[in-house]
Amino acid sequence: MTPAGPPTLRYFAARGRAQFLRYYFLNRDIEFIDEQVAMTPDFAAWAPIRGDRALSGPFHKLPVLHYDGHLVAETTVIAAFVHRRFGDEERLSLADNLKHATLLSSLFGDVMTPVGLLIHLDAVYAGVDLPSAAKRALERMNAQMHNIERTLIEWQWFAHMDDRPIMVADCLLWEELSVLQHVFGPHVPLGSWPELARFYAEFAGRAVCERELAAKPLPVTGRPQEPAAIAKLQQALAAAK
Fold first, then answer.
1. Under CATH, what is the fold of the domain 8-88?
2. CB–CB of 14/219 below 8 Å?
């Protein structure tokens, strides 16, 4: 049987929905092809890919993963595939695999997605009351992160991390903590969540993640002039106090 070549991860030149997968491959020393689609106002690089289902998947969007003859689409499905294909599912009990999948789902649906929408909010909804919307989003995010911290403590997630290799959910958790600080700035002090703050500081993969961020300083989303949009968001939060 011919061995599979390295996986190809195709996503935009952004952190977005794929950065945690990059972290995973890098931390686990898995050779992979990081195919980044350039983002320009005219979508010149994306337009020919979007219409090709062999490149953009069944729903014409990214990320997609090509590996071992499979085209895998949808972020959480890719994460589950990677978790299984690279042997992590076999390392965990059924109960721990369910916890892993549950954390991934919550981080994707309750943290990553709302933050991405918030960055685009005033561009998508002209005239939106940004201070009020940002304040409500921040309140929900703080409540969700407190809940995640409490749950991970109950699961003894942090206590058992040294007993296994770095896994996909670990990388997603670290990435979202990083993104929250980047987007909300001083309005999200990690000290609010002491165990998550300790994880963020002591995560075994932190050096690799930070090295990747420094080498490839990508935006969080594809919004044009994202730094100005994030600065406006932080100003709105300050005004909402």
1. Glutaredoxin (3.40.30)
2. yes
